[in-house]
Amino acid sequence: MSNIEAKEKRIGKVLCSDYEFHIPDYQRPYSWTEEQAEELFSDLLGFMRDTGGEDKYFLGSIVLVKGDSTRAEVVDGQQRITTLTILFAAIHERLRHAGISDFRAYIVEPGNIAENLEARPRLFLRRRDAGFFRQHLQDPGGFDRLLSLDPEGLTDPRKNIALNTRYFRDRLGELTEDDALRLGQFIVRNCYLVVVSTDHVESAYRIFSVLNDRGLDLETSDILKAELIGRIPADLQEEYTARWETIEESLGRKGLNELIAHVRMIYRKEKARRSVLDEFRAHVVAAFENASDLVDDALIPYADAFDIISRQAWTGSGKSAEINSLLALMDRLNNVDWVPVAMEFMRRFRSDPELLLRQLRALERLAGSMFVRGVYVTPRIERLGKVLKALDAGENLLDSGSPLQLSADEAKRTLELLDGEIYTYPAKLRMYIMLRIDSFLSGPGATYDHRITTIEHVLPQNPSAQAEWKRSWMPAQRELWVNRLGNLLLLSRAKNAQASNYDFDEKKKRYFTTGKGVSSYAISTQVLNEEEWTPEVVERRQHKLLDEFNTGWQLEVVQAEL
Asked: Is this model's pTM higher than 0.85 or not?
């Protein structure tokens, strides 16, 4: 029989001599990027400032395999434990010049002869990265060595360690020494984890599965349902229970919890500092005198809007095709932060499809530009919160200067990135860019429901030594153009490594066409109409495609305001 223990512990009692954390080799590598590091840091700092550093901040749970010794294998929670260790290393570096070295104790066990404690790291990564982590984060002097490395020459987990270290260093550098100290103290004293430990790995994975399958997000709707229905007069409770369950059946349990989070954002208009449940109570429930009004005037209409957005199922006007096309394009973004704004637009402008369409065009441009520019989660949500605030204030969001519109600098940076090496961007981003430009070429209402969609180079990335490409393109020309927009197209089929090296004429005949005719993508049809594929053709096409973005997203209008 396995012994299972679950305790809520503050970080100061987690990163202590009671635990020696080991990441098993079978675990995935460290994968948190700067975006997750930024979210953690901003949440911690924001919560500390909002509450004066007195309230508890819950960081989630970790699942350990741990017997009687201090050794603890981390089954779930390695990303948080690793990132907290990196943050403590940055805090130590920020404060050590002021003679404050106490935070190093949360990185390395200092040792204690009286208690027979050996000086050693508190965290051991997988063997492949443990030496790197120790040398650069846990050994004296390692922090500066890490900052001197070129992240681009590192493996992905080591690159993430280096970039997150730099990010924390830079953010802490923006704080005063006193504020950096207060933040460190807040994390140690007021930030908590639920530490779940068992002495058998099978039990640990069962616990991990349960926590992920039936976690807090799935419980939020159940708690709210009980609270809200309980506040409705007894003779109406059955009716409102049925209304609630109709929403749940329509959206599913996962969708219902997503709806609750989006409605919270619509009313709060800021990034959550506490749990969704707490903030929904404070900012949504508190806005209604009667629970029945909340269900009728908020949950039901927003559920309808959310369902339309999720299924891209707007109907009832001549604008349906373009509205649904915009919703489908935004669904390809790397986040859902835009959804609450789209829900509010649907609720407010349902009776005016033309105005709704104009608002959604501007929203897609803003959200798409932020995706292209790599805007992190906190500033992204802050911007969209400003859109909601401006909407509540009665501002015209279509006016120049509104938070829904791009600034001249934002438009300029967007164009610069679109003119870059698109194929080297993250896969989700480059696919979004390619589908967006194709939609501009295809016209309003373009849809993309192919079972397979891939991006292909016309000029191959690595042409064979005997290929015509090597004779018609100089090495510098290939390097300049091979991964840029002008040399790329879309295929509704899987890639073919052999076909990718065909000469241009052969490629057109055998690869860029289908059994039923030419490729269905407008961006690909353009290529089929070219007789040759030279640097001059690619450069001309690059400018034309950028002009399409310029016109489609109205970036030239923004540029004219400079």
From this structure: no
